Amino acid sequence: MKWLIRILFILVAVAGLVIGALLLMPGDKLGKILAEQVKAQTGRELTLSGDVRLSFWPVLGMETGPVTFGNAPWASSEPMLSAQSLAVGVDASALLAGDVRIRRVVAEDPVLRLELSQGRGNWEMSAPQTGASNTGSGNADAPAPNSAAPAETGTVTLDQLELSNARLVYVENGVPQMDFSGVDLKASWPDVTAPMKMSASMPVPGGAVEVDLEIPDLPAFSSGAVTPLVLGLTAPGGEISFDGRVNLAGEMDGKTHVRTTNTDAMLAAFGQGGVSVPMGLGRVADVSGHMTYTKDGRISLRDMRAVLDQNSFDGAADIVIASPPKITARLSTGDLDLTQATAGSAPNSGGTGGGGKQAPEGWSQAPIDASPLSLANGTIRLKASSIAIPDMTFGPSDLSLSLDRSRAVLKMEPATLFSGKLTGEVVANNRNGLSVGGNLTATGIDLKQALTTLGGVERLSGTASGTLQFLGVGQTEAQIMRSLSGKGSLDVGKGVISGFDLDRLMGRGEGSGGTTVFNSLTATYTIQDGNLTNNDLLMQLDNFRADGSGRVGLGARDIDYVFTPVALRANGGNGIAVPVRIKGPWSDPSIKPDLSKVIEAATEEKLKELEQDAKDKALKKAGEELNTTISDSEQVEDALKQKLEDEAKKGLLKLLGRD
After folding, report:
1. Dmax over Cα atoms in the chain, in whole Å?
2. Inter-residue contact 157 to 144 (CB < 8 Å)
3. How many CB atoms lie within 10 A of CB 305?
4. Distance of alpha carbon 119 from its chain centroid, rounded?
5. Is the pTM of this model over 0.90?
6. What are the angstrom distances between the C-alpha of 391 and each of 342, 382, 417, 455, 633?
7. In this structure, are residues 502 and 565 in contact, taking their beta carbons and an 8 Å threshold?
8. What SS3 state is found at 583?
């Protein structure tokens, strides 16, 4: 028994001497020994600076000053990990049992660089191979001498990971995918069967992004398998949640939910500062659906429900993350309200001619902010019960919006507007200054609604069809309207012109209360420099027809037009044709008989009367001279011939002595 006590005493003494030697050993010596052991186990260089302090029980721990840990041989030359200080503690009793229970890893100002290339991660480590390879002859399947089956490794768990003011870099196939600074991170994985929980905070413009993450099966995730993931993110202006599946490459599939109270602030937090979301398109947003994200930067949303301000949408979308993003979506909505979409989008200054203020009875001089045309590329298909925009409302509509490098094309297939249908397309191009154009066909349009809304003209009503091609250039409404060019046609069924009574004007004495009711109206027109010119207007009425020609100033918002009514019946001799001139601003044009035309017509008629009177007198005088009745100029010639023949006969008879 004494020998056993002696042996134990010797072991304790040796252990005490070893521990004492380690404790008394200078820090640089300890650092060198640790670096050699780490390199032997991982093949990576470990550099420790400053004093190295060790603890042995119950936690085998180490604290050091500045530290760097080398990268994989195939990765970049920068270290995988560096920090100003590092503290690591491992449960000593668990280590004796073959398990690695990490009590704590605390690092100050660390830089963690994770790299993935051809399926290899720089966080995967193994001891370097030593000894010569088996190149001799013999059974190729036989194990090499002194080789041993790989030993089973124990479990690895983590009680506490804490990184303070960290920089996290993720590189995939040599291309940086993520680089965040100022990150505070905490993680815990206390048991192999327990979920790994992590929280992180990172400063961003306007505040900080907070992330909470939970992976229920960390070993499966680390091996590359698809595993469940629960993620919550809060940022200035909103929050994002995800509950689904994920793999090591960052691909995701599951339910996602995005809520924002200030979308502009949230976009700025993610590096999209300066973007102003139009009112009605998600300044406050609530979007949910089933999301799939692939490592090539593609996001698909299915069963999507989006509430953007006062509007709601259902549908599906595909997004390619790029600069700018590419969006393909099919959406449906009920009543879409975009009446405030342009509110606050442009400062009310800088316009020409008006200092940014809207001129009285004129188009706005405020600059148009067309920058939203560059926010994205792609195609969005929308079906809506109604769409309200400033100053007008569309009925049930099927629209398709294509965006390509600051050029938008809106196709109507069809759109309901002013109680009728519009088909065709409208284009807004902001690549080299703003221009707008279109090619439209309209049927069943309520003419009074259209003219009142578009130009403040309320005197003409009816149901119209027509075509319109147009192009305008400028940075304000006024510039665009004054530059318009194009052509079109108009065909109106039965309608009314208020403000003058054509029947009374034509002297019938039967008015219709200051209005003119017509059966049809047709016209074609051209547009140049903001002026619409028409020369073939034809209006059919019960008793008259009216031809029209003149100019409509689309840019100047004025009109100079002449209607010329023509009696279709004798009218009992009680009336004459009196042209009507419409002249002045759209808001209050003067409508009155064109006296100059009347005078011209009267003068022409008087001249005709004088001419006829002179002709009648000449014919009478000729008849007296020729001793016959003459009613027209042809009879004068015949009578003169007859008179000459008679005189010739008389002369001949005298010559022959027969008189």
Report:
1. 202
2. no
3. 14
4. 37
5. no
6. 12, 21, 12, 11, 67
7. yes
8. strand
Kindly list the distances between the CA atom of residue 554 and the CA atoms of 210, 453, 482, 620, in Å, as whole numbers in the listed order.
Answer: 55, 14, 7, 59
pLDDT digits (tens, 9 = 90+) for 577-603: 668 888 899 888 887 776 565 556 555
Q: Which residue has the higher pLDDT, 473 or 218?
A: 473
CA dihedral 111, 112, 117, 123 (to 10 degrees): 140
Lowest-pLDDT choice from 30-39, 214-223, 631-640: 631-640
Which DSSP string do the residues of 324-343 spell out, in sequence order? S-EEEEEEEEEEEE-TTTTT
Residue carrying structure tokens 């008179």: 643
Cβ pair 415, 394 in contact under 8 A: yes
HSE value, Cβ hemisphere, 13 Å, CA-based, for 489: 8
For residue 346, the tally of other CB atoms under 10 A from its CB is 20
Q: How many residues does the chain have?
A: 659
Q: b/e per residue, 161-182, with b = 16+ CB within 10 A?
A: bbbbebbbbebeeeeeeeebee
Query: Rounded to an integer, what distance in angstroms lies between the CA atom of residue 245 and that of residue 467?
Result: 54
Query: In this structure, what are the phi and psi dihedrals at residue 509, rounded to the nearest 5 degrees?
Result: 80, 5
The DSSP symbol for 50 reads S
Q: Helix or strand or coil: residue 21?
A: helix
Q: How confident is the model at residue 277 (pLDDT cuts 50, 70, 90)?
A: confident
SS3 state at 573: helix
Q: What is the pLDDT of residue 1?
A: 45
268 alpha-carbon distance from chain centroid? 18
Q: What percent of the chain has pLDDT over 70?
A: 68
Distance CA 198, CA 189 (A): 9
Confidence tier at 395 by pLDDT (50, 70, 90): very high
- What does the block give as tokens for 438? 């279109």
Residue 603's contacts (CB-CB under 8 Å, 6 or more residues apart) are none
Contact 522, 490 (CB under 8 A): yes
Whole-number Cα distances in Å, 274 to 167, 197, 205, 271: 26, 35, 12, 9
Reading the block at residue 419, the tokens are 């109680």
DSSP codes of every residue in 165-199: EEEEEEEETTEEEEEEEEEEEEEEE-STTSPEEEE
The residue with tokens 């001419």 is 611
| Nearest alpha carbon to residue 157 among 90, 83, 248, 206 | 90
Q: Smallest Cα–Cα separation from 606: which of 576, 584, 628, 629? A: 576
- Please give the sequence-ordered ranges of beta strands (E in DSSP) within 321-434, or none if there are none: 326-337, 377-389, 392-394, 397-403, 407-417, 420-429
d(CA 384, CA 312): 11
Residues in contact with 637: Cβ distance below 8 Å, sequence separation at least 6, in sequence order: none
